[in-house]
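FAQ: What does a multi-protein file look like?

Like this. Sequence, then tokens, then the next protein.
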Amino acid sequence: MVETLFGRRIIMQKVKLGLIVGLSLALILVVIQNTTSVRARFLWFSGDAPVILLLVLTGVGGFILGLLVALLNFQNKRPDRSE
């Protein structure tokens, strides 16, 4: 029984690593292939920017937003220690 659980854990770690590597490579390819400059507008700001910069900024913004949501969710589930 222990060997089966240990084997499944190793398989899941390999699957996760494969997904991370595959998605990272796909992201790198998308970023490398999109180097042209485009007109970007946000609220009252407007300007020309390379697509690669917009992709990186969007990715970083999404990561930060996801991190903040996860932290807020973690704080809400933590038991109150004031008692």
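And here is the next protein:
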Amino acid sequence: MKRIFILSLTLFTLLSCSSDEETVDATTILGTWKLISHSDTNPLPDCMKQTRIIFIEHGNLSGEIYEPNGENCDKTNLVASYEKETETSYTVIGSSTILAEVELESNKLIWTEKSSTKTRILNFIKVK
């Protein structure tokens, strides 16, 4: 009986230990998001796969946007703010202009840019 108890306790201890893998909480917009698809291009060029958006507390965000330019990969730094509209909806603002509407869906962030002539949709997944 004592052996069964010790074996059970040992097994419980081993199973309850956390793994070294980091768990990503995709229920909050805060964190780093990686571009996985873009409505203008399919498949996504390797250059654009480097694009990251970082949502920081207090309504700030930053990012690095990568776009192909011939054989080169151009990087643009993004600094903007965001406002929460609903539990899963946000507006991204840069220099007093609305840059995008953002929806948080499960583990995906959907970034929608609208102009008078075009709508672009970018999909991101959370990496940190």
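Q: Is there any per-entry metadata?
A: Some entries carry free-text notes. For the entry above: DSSP finds one helix and eight strands in the chain.
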